Task: structure prediction
Amino acid sequence: MAGLDPGLAIPVWLAEDDLGCIICQGLLAWPATLPCGHSFCRDCLKGLWAAGSPGRRRSCPTCREGAAQPPQLRKNTLLQELADKYSRALRELKEAPGAAPARGAAAGAAPEPARPPSRRAAQLPAEAQKSITEAGHELEELVEQLVDLVRSLQSQTHLLEPGPDNEGSTQSLLVTPHTPERKLRDILHDLEEIREKLRESLTWKEALEEQPQVELQEGSSSSACPLPDHSHPAPTRTSRFVQWAISPTFDLRSHCCSLEVSEDCRVVTVSRCPQTHLWSHERFVTCQVLCSQAFSSGQQYWEVDTQHCNNWAVGVASWGMRRNQTLGRTEDSWCVEWKGTGQLSAWHMVKETILGADRPKVVGIWLDLEEGKLAFYSVANQETLLYECPISASSPLHPAFWLYGLNPGNALTIRPVKV
Result:
Protein backbone atom coordinates (compact mmCIF):
# COMPACT_ATOMS: atom_id res chain seq x y z
CA MET A 1 0.00 0.00 0.00
CA ALA A 2 1.37 3.42 -0.90
CA GLY A 3 2.46 5.57 2.03
CA LEU A 4 1.62 9.20 2.69
CA ASP A 5 3.27 11.72 0.42
CA PRO A 6 5.80 13.55 2.63
CA GLY A 7 5.55 16.60 0.42
CA LEU A 8 1.77 16.84 0.64
CA ALA A 9 0.50 19.60 2.96
CA ILE A 10 -3.23 20.00 3.55
CA PRO A 11 -4.24 23.25 5.31
CA VAL A 12 -6.55 22.70 8.29
CA TRP A 13 -8.04 25.72 10.08
CA LEU A 14 -7.78 25.46 13.85
CA ALA A 15 -9.12 27.76 16.54
CA GLU A 16 -7.86 27.93 20.11
CA ASP A 17 -11.05 26.18 21.23
CA ASP A 18 -9.99 23.09 19.26
CA LEU A 19 -6.81 22.84 21.34
CA GLY A 20 -8.17 24.33 24.54
CA CYS A 21 -8.35 23.13 28.13
CA ILE A 22 -11.83 23.32 29.66
CA ILE A 23 -10.34 23.97 33.11
CA CYS A 24 -8.08 26.97 32.49
CA GLN A 25 -9.80 28.06 29.23
CA GLY A 26 -6.36 28.41 27.63
CA LEU A 27 -4.24 26.56 25.08
CA LEU A 28 -3.22 23.05 26.16
CA ALA A 29 0.11 22.95 28.00
CA TRP A 30 1.64 19.50 28.61
CA PRO A 31 -1.65 17.89 27.41
CA ALA A 32 -2.69 14.69 29.16
CA THR A 33 -5.41 12.50 27.64
CA LEU A 34 -7.64 10.52 30.02
CA PRO A 35 -8.91 6.99 29.23
CA CYS A 36 -12.26 8.51 28.15
CA GLY A 37 -10.46 10.43 25.37
CA HIS A 38 -10.74 14.00 26.73
CA SER A 39 -7.56 16.05 27.14
CA PHE A 40 -6.52 18.73 29.64
CA CYS A 41 -3.40 20.47 30.88
CA ARG A 42 -1.63 18.13 33.29
CA ASP A 43 -1.23 20.79 35.97
CA CYS A 44 -4.90 21.80 35.64
CA LEU A 45 -6.02 18.21 36.24
CA LYS A 46 -3.68 17.76 39.18
CA GLY A 47 -4.87 21.01 40.73
CA LEU A 48 -8.53 20.13 40.24
CA TRP A 49 -8.13 16.66 41.71
CA ALA A 50 -5.95 17.88 44.59
CA ALA A 51 -8.71 20.28 45.64
CA GLY A 52 -11.11 17.37 46.26
CA SER A 53 -11.35 15.10 49.25
CA PRO A 54 -8.77 12.25 49.45
CA GLY A 55 -11.31 9.49 48.84
CA ARG A 56 -13.14 11.26 46.02
CA ARG A 57 -13.22 9.67 42.57
CA ARG A 58 -10.90 11.29 40.06
CA SER A 59 -13.36 12.00 37.27
CA CYS A 60 -13.07 13.68 33.89
CA PRO A 61 -14.29 17.32 34.08
CA THR A 62 -16.06 16.89 30.73
CA CYS A 63 -17.86 13.53 30.75
CA ARG A 64 -17.50 12.71 34.48
CA GLU A 65 -16.05 9.25 33.79
CA GLY A 66 -13.56 8.34 36.48
CA ALA A 67 -12.10 5.87 38.92
CA ALA A 68 -11.18 5.72 42.59
CA GLN A 69 -7.48 5.91 41.74
CA PRO A 70 -6.17 8.75 39.55
CA PRO A 71 -4.89 7.55 36.16
CA GLN A 72 -1.25 7.94 35.22
CA LEU A 73 -0.92 11.19 33.31
CA ARG A 74 1.26 10.96 30.22
CA LYS A 75 1.95 13.66 27.69
CA ASN A 76 -0.04 13.44 24.46
CA THR A 77 2.82 14.31 22.13
CA LEU A 78 0.57 14.74 19.10
CA LEU A 79 -1.60 17.33 20.85
CA GLN A 80 1.49 19.07 22.20
CA GLU A 81 2.95 19.30 18.70
CA LEU A 82 -0.34 20.71 17.34
CA ALA A 83 -0.53 23.25 20.17
CA ASP A 84 3.07 24.31 19.52
CA LYS A 85 2.42 24.67 15.78
CA TYR A 86 -0.70 26.70 16.49
CA SER A 87 1.24 29.02 18.81
CA ARG A 88 4.03 29.48 16.24
CA ALA A 89 1.55 30.15 13.41
CA LEU A 90 -0.33 32.67 15.54
CA ARG A 91 2.91 34.43 16.45
CA GLU A 92 4.02 34.54 12.81
CA LEU A 93 0.69 36.01 11.76
CA LYS A 94 1.01 38.77 14.33
CA GLU A 95 4.62 39.49 13.35
CA ALA A 96 4.06 39.26 9.59
CA PRO A 97 5.08 42.41 7.63
CA GLY A 98 1.63 42.72 6.10
CA ALA A 99 -0.08 42.63 9.49
CA ALA A 100 0.96 46.16 10.46
CA PRO A 101 3.03 47.80 7.70
CA ALA A 102 5.35 50.52 8.88
CA ARG A 103 5.52 53.96 7.26
CA GLY A 104 7.66 53.95 4.15
CA ALA A 105 7.52 50.17 3.80
CA ALA A 106 8.95 48.78 0.60
CA ALA A 107 6.47 48.35 -2.20
CA GLY A 108 7.53 44.76 -2.64
CA ALA A 109 6.88 43.81 0.98
CA ALA A 110 5.31 40.41 1.42
CA PRO A 111 1.54 40.53 1.80
CA GLU A 112 -0.05 39.33 5.02
CA PRO A 113 -0.61 35.56 4.98
CA ALA A 114 -4.18 34.45 4.52
CA ARG A 115 -5.87 33.96 7.90
CA PRO A 116 -8.60 31.48 8.75
CA PRO A 117 -12.04 33.05 8.93
CA SER A 118 -12.83 34.28 12.43
CA ARG A 119 -15.58 32.43 14.25
CA ARG A 120 -16.75 35.68 15.77
CA ALA A 121 -16.67 38.16 12.90
CA ALA A 122 -16.98 36.12 9.69
CA GLN A 123 -20.42 36.08 8.13
CA LEU A 124 -21.58 34.22 5.07
CA PRO A 125 -22.88 36.32 2.17
CA ALA A 126 -26.66 36.59 2.02
CA GLU A 127 -26.73 34.55 -1.21
CA ALA A 128 -24.80 31.72 0.44
CA GLN A 129 -27.06 31.76 3.50
CA LYS A 130 -30.11 31.61 1.25
CA SER A 131 -28.70 28.71 -0.77
CA ILE A 132 -27.91 26.79 2.42
CA THR A 133 -31.47 27.28 3.66
CA GLU A 134 -32.91 26.17 0.31
CA ALA A 135 -30.66 23.10 0.29
CA GLY A 136 -31.87 22.30 3.81
CA HIS A 137 -35.50 22.41 2.69
CA GLU A 138 -34.71 20.21 -0.32
CA LEU A 139 -32.97 17.74 1.97
CA GLU A 140 -35.99 17.76 4.26
CA GLU A 141 -38.24 16.92 1.29
CA LEU A 142 -35.97 14.03 0.28
CA VAL A 143 -36.07 12.64 3.81
CA GLU A 144 -39.87 12.94 3.76
CA GLN A 145 -39.94 10.90 0.53
CA LEU A 146 -37.66 8.27 2.10
CA VAL A 147 -39.98 8.05 5.11
CA ASP A 148 -42.97 7.47 2.79
CA LEU A 149 -41.00 4.85 0.83
CA VAL A 150 -40.01 2.91 3.95
CA ARG A 151 -43.59 3.03 5.24
CA SER A 152 -44.77 1.65 1.90
CA LEU A 153 -42.23 -1.19 2.08
CA GLN A 154 -43.27 -1.82 5.67
CA SER A 155 -46.92 -2.20 4.68
CA GLN A 156 -45.93 -4.63 1.89
CA THR A 157 -43.96 -6.66 4.42
CA HIS A 158 -47.09 -6.91 6.59
CA LEU A 159 -49.02 -8.29 3.62
CA LEU A 160 -46.43 -11.06 3.20
CA GLU A 161 -46.72 -12.20 6.83
CA PRO A 162 -48.33 -15.64 7.41
CA GLY A 163 -52.08 -15.72 7.53
CA PRO A 164 -54.81 -18.37 7.85
CA ASP A 165 -53.74 -19.99 4.58
CA ASN A 166 -50.20 -20.75 5.77
CA GLU A 167 -50.49 -21.33 9.48
CA GLY A 168 -47.52 -23.71 9.42
CA SER A 169 -45.04 -20.88 8.85
CA THR A 170 -45.27 -19.52 12.38
CA GLN A 171 -41.50 -19.22 12.69
CA SER A 172 -41.40 -16.32 10.23
CA LEU A 173 -43.62 -14.31 12.58
CA LEU A 174 -40.67 -13.77 14.92
CA VAL A 175 -39.23 -10.28 14.59
CA THR A 176 -35.51 -10.47 15.20
CA PRO A 177 -32.84 -7.84 14.63
CA HIS A 178 -32.05 -9.51 11.30
CA THR A 179 -35.58 -9.71 9.84
CA PRO A 180 -36.67 -7.22 7.14
CA GLU A 181 -39.51 -6.00 9.38
CA ARG A 182 -37.15 -5.09 12.21
CA LYS A 183 -34.68 -3.45 9.82
CA LEU A 184 -37.43 -1.39 8.21
CA ARG A 185 -38.67 -0.34 11.64
CA ASP A 186 -35.18 0.79 12.66
CA ILE A 187 -34.62 2.63 9.37
CA LEU A 188 -37.98 4.38 9.71
CA HIS A 189 -37.16 5.44 13.27
CA ASP A 190 -33.79 6.87 12.19
CA LEU A 191 -35.31 8.71 9.23
CA GLU A 192 -38.06 10.24 11.38
CA GLU A 193 -35.43 11.45 13.84
CA ILE A 194 -33.40 13.01 11.01
CA ARG A 195 -36.53 14.68 9.66
CA GLU A 196 -37.39 16.21 13.05
CA LYS A 197 -33.82 17.45 13.55
CA LEU A 198 -33.83 19.05 10.08
CA ARG A 199 -37.12 20.79 10.79
CA GLU A 200 -35.89 22.01 14.15
CA SER A 201 -32.58 23.22 12.73
CA LEU A 202 -34.19 25.05 9.79
CA THR A 203 -36.82 26.66 12.00
CA TRP A 204 -34.15 27.88 14.40
CA LYS A 205 -31.90 29.13 11.55
CA GLU A 206 -34.72 31.04 9.88
CA ALA A 207 -35.67 32.62 13.19
CA LEU A 208 -32.08 33.78 13.66
CA GLU A 209 -31.89 35.19 10.12
CA GLU A 210 -34.93 37.36 10.81
CA GLN A 211 -33.11 39.03 13.72
CA PRO A 212 -30.46 41.75 13.29
CA GLN A 213 -26.94 40.30 13.21
CA VAL A 214 -24.46 41.58 15.80
CA GLU A 215 -20.85 41.31 14.72
CA LEU A 216 -18.16 41.13 17.39
CA GLN A 217 -14.91 42.61 16.14
CA GLU A 218 -11.58 41.03 17.00
CA GLY A 219 -9.74 42.86 19.74
CA SER A 220 -12.87 44.45 21.20
CA SER A 221 -12.20 45.95 24.61
CA SER A 222 -15.61 45.02 25.98
CA SER A 223 -15.64 41.98 28.24
CA ALA A 224 -19.33 41.39 27.70
CA CYS A 225 -20.21 39.13 24.78
CA PRO A 226 -23.54 39.37 22.92
CA LEU A 227 -26.01 36.73 23.98
CA PRO A 228 -27.95 34.81 21.34
CA ASP A 229 -31.68 35.30 21.52
CA HIS A 230 -33.05 32.09 22.97
CA SER A 231 -36.59 33.35 23.53
CA HIS A 232 -39.33 30.92 22.59
CA PRO A 233 -43.08 31.24 22.15
CA ALA A 234 -45.08 30.23 25.17
CA PRO A 235 -46.08 26.55 25.15
CA THR A 236 -49.55 25.91 23.78
CA ARG A 237 -50.49 23.32 26.39
CA THR A 238 -51.54 23.80 30.02
CA SER A 239 -49.28 21.98 32.45
CA ARG A 240 -50.80 19.77 35.12
CA PHE A 241 -48.21 21.26 37.46
CA VAL A 242 -49.32 24.83 36.76
CA GLN A 243 -50.41 25.58 40.35
CA TRP A 244 -46.90 24.78 41.60
CA ALA A 245 -45.05 26.43 38.71
CA ILE A 246 -42.19 28.81 39.47
CA SER A 247 -39.71 30.68 37.29
CA PRO A 248 -36.35 30.62 39.13
CA THR A 249 -33.42 32.88 38.20
CA PHE A 250 -29.70 32.14 37.93
CA ASP A 251 -27.55 33.30 40.83
CA LEU A 252 -24.80 35.65 39.65
CA ARG A 253 -22.51 34.67 42.52
CA SER A 254 -22.28 30.99 41.62
CA HIS A 255 -21.70 30.70 37.86
CA CYS A 256 -18.14 30.04 36.69
CA CYS A 257 -16.11 32.48 34.60
CA SER A 258 -16.87 30.52 31.41
CA LEU A 259 -20.57 31.32 31.64
CA GLU A 260 -22.60 34.46 31.11
CA VAL A 261 -26.15 35.14 32.25
CA SER A 262 -28.82 37.17 30.46
CA GLU A 263 -30.23 40.37 31.94
CA ASP A 264 -33.38 38.62 33.13
CA CYS A 265 -31.22 35.87 34.70
CA ARG A 266 -33.10 33.10 32.90
CA VAL A 267 -30.65 32.21 30.10
CA VAL A 268 -27.15 30.90 30.83
CA THR A 269 -24.66 30.60 27.95
CA VAL A 270 -21.14 29.29 27.48
CA SER A 271 -19.27 32.51 26.77
CA ARG A 272 -17.43 33.21 23.53
CA CYS A 273 -14.81 35.16 25.44
CA PRO A 274 -13.48 34.98 29.03
CA GLN A 275 -15.58 36.77 31.63
CA THR A 276 -13.96 39.10 34.15
CA HIS A 277 -15.93 38.02 37.21
CA LEU A 278 -14.27 38.58 40.54
CA TRP A 279 -13.08 35.36 42.08
CA SER A 280 -15.20 34.03 44.93
CA HIS A 281 -15.33 30.78 46.85
CA GLU A 282 -19.02 30.62 45.86
CA ARG A 283 -18.14 30.43 42.15
CA PHE A 284 -17.96 27.01 40.44
CA VAL A 285 -14.72 25.82 38.84
CA THR A 286 -16.46 24.14 35.89
CA CYS A 287 -19.46 25.31 33.82
CA GLN A 288 -22.10 24.99 36.53
CA VAL A 289 -24.54 27.44 38.11
CA LEU A 290 -27.23 27.45 40.81
CA CYS A 291 -30.42 29.47 41.02
CA SER A 292 -31.02 32.04 43.74
CA GLN A 293 -34.22 30.39 44.98
CA ALA A 294 -33.84 27.86 47.82
CA PHE A 295 -36.49 25.30 48.81
CA SER A 296 -36.76 23.49 52.12
CA SER A 297 -40.48 22.65 52.05
CA GLY A 298 -43.52 22.58 49.80
CA GLN A 299 -43.86 21.62 46.13
CA GLN A 300 -42.28 23.35 43.14
CA TYR A 301 -42.15 22.79 39.38
CA TRP A 302 -40.07 24.50 36.68
CA GLU A 303 -39.07 23.81 33.07
CA VAL A 304 -35.75 24.08 31.25
CA ASP A 305 -35.31 24.37 27.48
CA THR A 306 -32.28 22.23 26.53
CA GLN A 307 -32.53 22.39 22.72
CA HIS A 308 -29.53 24.67 22.30
CA CYS A 309 -27.04 22.77 24.46
CA ASN A 310 -25.13 19.71 23.22
CA ASN A 311 -24.29 18.28 26.65
CA TRP A 312 -26.11 19.29 29.82
CA ALA A 313 -27.33 18.31 33.26
CA VAL A 314 -30.28 19.78 35.18
CA GLY A 315 -31.36 19.02 38.73
CA VAL A 316 -31.08 20.30 42.29
CA ALA A 317 -28.25 20.82 44.75
CA SER A 318 -27.61 22.45 48.10
CA TRP A 319 -25.73 25.73 48.27
CA GLY A 320 -23.08 23.91 50.29
CA MET A 321 -22.10 21.70 47.34
CA ARG A 322 -18.35 22.07 46.83
CA ARG A 323 -17.49 24.28 43.90
CA ASN A 324 -14.96 21.82 42.48
CA GLN A 325 -17.49 18.97 42.50
CA THR A 326 -19.89 18.02 39.74
CA LEU A 327 -23.66 17.85 39.76
CA GLY A 328 -25.06 14.44 40.65
CA ARG A 329 -21.76 13.16 42.08
CA THR A 330 -22.39 14.28 45.65
CA GLU A 331 -24.79 13.36 48.44
CA ASP A 332 -26.50 16.75 48.19
CA SER A 333 -27.14 16.90 44.41
CA TRP A 334 -29.37 15.06 41.95
CA CYS A 335 -29.70 15.46 38.18
CA VAL A 336 -30.53 14.02 34.78
CA GLU A 337 -27.75 14.40 32.23
CA TRP A 338 -27.64 14.28 28.43
CA LYS A 339 -24.40 13.23 26.80
CA GLY A 340 -23.83 14.29 23.21
CA THR A 341 -23.01 10.67 22.39
CA GLY A 342 -26.73 9.89 22.69
CA GLN A 343 -27.33 8.81 26.28
CA LEU A 344 -29.68 10.14 28.94
CA SER A 345 -28.79 9.25 32.54
CA ALA A 346 -29.77 10.08 36.10
CA TRP A 347 -27.00 10.78 38.62
CA HIS A 348 -26.76 10.85 42.43
CA MET A 349 -23.86 9.97 44.73
CA VAL A 350 -21.69 9.03 41.70
CA LYS A 351 -24.27 6.38 40.78
CA GLU A 352 -25.48 6.48 37.18
CA THR A 353 -28.87 5.18 36.07
CA ILE A 354 -29.11 4.96 32.27
CA LEU A 355 -32.54 6.13 31.08
CA GLY A 356 -32.27 5.66 27.30
CA ALA A 357 -31.19 7.35 24.10
CA ASP A 358 -34.10 9.76 23.51
CA ARG A 359 -33.20 13.40 24.07
CA PRO A 360 -35.85 15.60 25.75
CA LYS A 361 -36.08 19.08 24.26
CA VAL A 362 -37.63 20.51 27.41
CA VAL A 363 -37.16 19.03 30.89
CA GLY A 364 -39.68 19.60 33.66
CA ILE A 365 -38.45 19.26 37.26
CA TRP A 366 -40.95 18.40 40.01
CA LEU A 367 -39.63 18.85 43.56
CA ASP A 368 -42.02 17.58 46.21
CA LEU A 369 -40.39 18.07 49.61
CA GLU A 370 -43.62 17.17 51.42
CA GLU A 371 -43.49 13.63 49.98
CA GLY A 372 -39.69 13.57 49.69
CA LYS A 373 -39.78 13.05 45.92
CA LEU A 374 -37.90 14.41 42.89
CA ALA A 375 -39.11 13.71 39.35
CA PHE A 376 -37.95 14.69 35.87
CA TYR A 377 -40.30 14.91 32.88
CA SER A 378 -39.89 15.24 29.13
CA VAL A 379 -42.22 18.09 28.19
CA ALA A 380 -43.97 18.17 24.82
CA ASN A 381 -47.76 18.13 24.41
CA GLN A 382 -47.84 16.59 27.87
CA GLU A 383 -45.37 15.65 30.62
CA THR A 384 -43.81 12.18 30.23
CA LEU A 385 -41.98 10.81 33.26
CA LEU A 386 -38.26 10.26 32.68
CA TYR A 387 -37.08 9.44 36.19
CA GLU A 388 -38.28 9.60 39.77
CA CYS A 389 -36.35 9.15 43.00
CA PRO A 390 -36.71 9.75 46.74
CA ILE A 391 -34.97 12.86 48.04
CA SER A 392 -33.95 14.10 51.45
CA ALA A 393 -31.69 17.01 52.25
CA SER A 394 -30.46 18.54 55.48
CA SER A 395 -30.24 22.00 53.87
CA PRO A 396 -32.36 23.90 51.31
CA LEU A 397 -32.10 22.88 47.66
CA HIS A 398 -31.50 25.12 44.65
CA PRO A 399 -32.18 24.44 40.94
CA ALA A 400 -28.79 23.42 39.49
CA PHE A 401 -27.33 23.29 35.97
CA TRP A 402 -24.23 22.11 34.08
CA LEU A 403 -23.29 22.98 30.48
CA TYR A 404 -20.54 21.64 28.25
CA GLY A 405 -17.84 24.28 28.50
CA LEU A 406 -15.93 23.87 25.23
CA ASN A 407 -18.81 24.80 22.91
CA PRO A 408 -19.36 28.59 23.02
CA GLY A 409 -23.01 29.44 22.49
CA ASN A 410 -24.35 26.37 24.30
CA ALA A 411 -27.28 27.65 26.36
CA LEU A 412 -29.97 26.55 28.81
CA THR A 413 -33.15 28.57 29.28
CA ILE A 414 -35.58 28.56 32.19
CA ARG A 415 -38.85 29.01 30.35
CA PRO A 416 -42.27 30.02 31.67
CA VAL A 417 -44.80 27.28 32.37
CA LYS A 418 -48.07 27.71 30.48
CA VAL A 419 -50.83 28.91 32.81
